[in-house]
Amino acid sequence: MTQTRSGGRILVDNLLAHGCDRIFQVPGESFLAVLDALHDVPAIDLVTCRQEGGAAFMACADGALTGRPGVCFVTRGPGATNASIGVHVARQDSIPLLLFVGDIDRGTRDREAFQEVDLPAMFAPLAKWATRIEDARRIPEYIARAWTVATSGRPGPVVIALPEDMLVEQVEAVDRSLPAPLPVALDPKDFVPLFERLRAAERPVAIVGGAGWDRATGAAFDCFAKNWGIPVAGAFRRQDAIANTSPAWAGNLGYGPNPKLAQRIRDADLILAVGARLGEATTDGYTLITPDHPGQVLIHIHPEAEELNRAYRADLAIHAGVFAFAAMCARADFPGTPHPSGAEAHAEWLEWSSPKPREGVTLDLGPCVAAMRERLSPEDAILCNGAGNFSSWWHRYWHSGWSGSQLAPTAGAMGYGVPAAVAAALRCPNKLAVAIAGDGDFLMNGQELATAVQTGAELLVLLVDNGGYGTIRMHQERAYPRRTSGTALANPDFAALARAYGCWAETVEATDAFAPALDRALAAGGVRLLHLKTDIEVITPGALLSGL
């Protein structure tokens, strides 16, 4: 299309040409030209949110579910700073994201105009690419490049500043369509030493996760791991890389892993890391596996060449997309008898992930997760959570399905669960989006319940209320015993708050009351919230606060 259009209309036309079908936004006068153009484009669903952090989280979740960039629009200054948390999550989670920020007029720049921020400079440390479009004629070029940067190699966020006067310019521009993907070619020669080392290994372990995992990748790697009998551990908050029903699934790494799995990692003579960066949380502060890993062979596969040999010395580094790698492994010849450690590790995980009642606990979350497992299939639910100790019960006891059944920020950002569940409910209406939030976590973005109700989303919120910032209180008790300071919370009646938003809600205060309340919630429609009142003394699935 080359006829004269506004910059806002050129932008919308090119997003549409690249496959964008949903935009999350908080409106601002700086990009009214874009909102006006969207008025005539019903093919793009415009989701109006209540805070820019929530909007950015929704776009992150949408990008994680589709593999396409989630798209978010916010305004300059306060809007951009609020949305920056989503850019950080997209970067650490390797999620494709396009954040568009309405900017001041070009003619008023560098005067500290109203809400002025040097946006490319501000976002440069967080994004894969941060830029500003100065000429409306070049919008198609910028969108094509941004889409490619966000989705290639290790996916991540791109931030584009949009000067307000540029968006209203009437110009001619040549649109660009969706660029072809850039696959990383595999060299079969790379697989000769890989399989030689695998055959020689006595205690191999695979760690999977990170960029590019989807159902096809998980199925291919599952086939490979089963055939070889290699235990498969999920990187931190990547528990859906393969379905946990796999006989090779060994559990998840991160905070509070199965001690037997941690020991298995320490004892491994070969570690096969596929897609995972081997970050701080996955490796327990780079100690579970050290960067030089003496006595262990590390084979590292990653779609971004710069991630290989960055923090960890690899004995064999393979630059490849995870699907291409997993598919080639699945096709390879395998030993006639699988290694027994795969089945052994899976049995250890089954024991670890089976909740057992705890004496003297009024509302025990372990049996609550078990009740959920009885009523919800991992294939029919998407669990979404932010940060906090509350999530550890679900990380330990929930059995995840294939890729796309877990949305959780590896950046440890609070307030992610509810916005992510809204995005999941809109993207996958045939599944139940379940937001799991702590009390402190929920109140960072609980206002997005209004977005959920407004959009007609169907989702369930489980709000775990222990009256404090539990994770920080746990660290406080370890470092400064019995000197509580700044971690207690005075909370509202969350069930009443949810009903004020138009949700169905109940309060649960005892273990045996949870399952009936869950049944009522599942039978209800729309947005449902269960307010679970717990004791901060029960700080993790295996520890009491007083025991620290």
Report what the structure shows.
With 548 residues, the chain is α/β, with parallel strands linked by helices. The chain has three domains: 5-171, Rossmann fold (3-Layer(aba) Sandwich), CATH 3.40.50.970; 188-349, Rossmann fold (3-Layer(aba) Sandwich); 355-547, Rossmann fold. It is 37% helix and 17% strand. The chain is built from 20 helices and 20 strands. The protein has helices at residues 7-17, 32-38, 52-66, 78-93, 119-123, 139-151, 164-168, 191-200, 215-228, 259-267, 322-331, 341-352, 365-375, 391-397, 417-427, 439-445, 449-455, 470-479, 494-501, 511-523; strands at 5-6, 22-25, 45-48, 70-74, 97-103, 129-132, 157-163, 170-171, 204-208, 232-234, 249-252, 270-274, 297-302, 316-319, 381-385, 406-407, 432-438, 459-465, 504-508, 527-533. The strands form four sheets. A six-stranded parallel sheet has the order 3-2-4-5-7-6, with helices on both faces. Strand 6 (129-132), helix 6 (139-151) and strand 7 form a beta-alpha-beta unit. Helix 9 (215-228) runs parallel beside helix 11 and helix 15 (417-427) packs parallel to helix 17. The chain is globular and about 65 Å long. The model has no long low-confidence stretch (mean pLDDT 94).
